[in-house]
Amino acid sequence: MTERYDCTDCSESLYGQKYILKEENPYCIKCYESLFSHNCEVCQKLIACTSKDLSYKDRHWHSDCFLCIKCSRSLEDRPFATKDDMLMCTDCYSNEYSSKCHACLKTIMPGSKKMEHKGNSWHENCFTCNRCQQPIGTRSFIQKDASNYCLPCYEKQFALQCIQCKKPITTGGVNYRDQPWHKECFVCIGCKQQLAGQRFTSRDDFAYCFDCFCNLFAKKCAYCTTSISGLGGSKYISFEQRQWHNSCFNCKKCSVSLVGRGFLTCKDDIFCPDCGKDF
């Protein structure tokens, strides 16, 4: 007795009938199409198992329905793009949606590499340095007057040179006496600490921090022996080659302030007129 060979789904005999194997299970054509075939995205009709099924992202088309939505050309053997689930050939997509190169003004085709900066787009080979004409690619660059420059070219053409180290100043910097400096080069001539953002002064064309200037050049108070800077409008008393801080100019005996008053001296000491009578 001959063994039966039936459709896996409807159990009808497949002897003498066309059938399809799926995962080693036989199906008659009708059951196979009912279970596994897809409907076309365009015409909504079943894509028969004898027809070519073109698929993209879980969507399916008859080969005759797989067309550009704009120009109706077949997309079966040509590259295509999608916009809002609509299929378009690359020419139509480019005309409708692709960016134009800021340099050559031609369309940047879908799938090709493009460079973008501040709302503008370029072909990779059009995104070049305005000076050396070499492609910038992913290297750092600086834009000036709507032109792009690689860093070496920008430094050669535009960057100021530090008066100290003679190297280009590309970011930040300090201007002192109409001369440009790197922040790290503008330092105290004494202790070498950076002066940018700090109190400083100069003497004989050299810059000094506040502490170094006071230690090197400021007069010393005759009473407390610390420096009298005279910077920032601070006041002091000067008398016969001696100086005092205002707060230190007091009577030696009673400690009353002598600022704006008469006083007497005895050797290195100062006295108010009342205390000075004793001497």
From TrEMBL:
Keywords: LIM domain, Metal-binding, Nucleus, Repeat, Zinc, Zinc-finger
InterPro entries: LIM_FHL1/2/3/5_N, Znf_LIM
Residues annotated as domain LIM zinc-binding: 38-98, 99-160, 219-279
GO molecular function, one term: transcription coregulator activity
A single Gene Ontology CC term: nucleus
Record localization: Nucleus
A Pfam family recorded for this sequence: LIM
Family annotation (SMART domains): LIM
Record protein name field: Four and a half LIM domains protein 2-like
UniProt organism field: Seriola lalandi dorsalis
Organism lineage: Eukaryota, Metazoa, Chordata, Craniata, Vertebrata
